[in-house]
Amino acid sequence: MDEARLEDKLKELVKEFGGMSNPQYRKLATLAKQAQDKRKRLQKSVDNLQESLDYLRVCIKYQLFDLEATRRENNYLRKLLEEKED
Fold it and tell me: Which residues are within 8 A (CB) of 35 and not within 5 positions of it... i.e. 6 or more apart?
């Protein structure tokens, strides 16, 4: 079941049980509401995690780029020193 359908079903359950006065129905409505809230928090956490992973990927790519540039510069400077010694 996809997330949108699950959320719709949870909202439907909350509405259905919201008008009932039976304590058992109120308990079910509360549980459905809690499940909906927890799902939203979980989705927010997953989104934050995905954003952090994307940022980490960018940082790693930059570090690799910087490392390669440093290696090229090192090789260039070594060649200059070798030429100067000769």
Answer: 10
Q: What is the pTM of this model?
A: 0.59
The residue whose two tokens read 């989104």 is 47
Q: Which domain holds residue 28?
A: 3-85
CA–CA distance, 54 with 59 (Å, rounded to integer): 9
Q: Which residues contact 11 (CB under 8 A, 6 or more apart)?
A: 36
- With bands split at pLDDT 50, 70 and 90, how would you rate the model's confidence at 49? very high
Cβ–Cβ under 8 Å, residues 14 and 32 = yes
For residue 32, the tally of other CB atoms under 10 A from its CB is 20
The total number of structural domains in the chain stands at 1
Residue 39 · residue 10 · CB < 8 Å:
yes
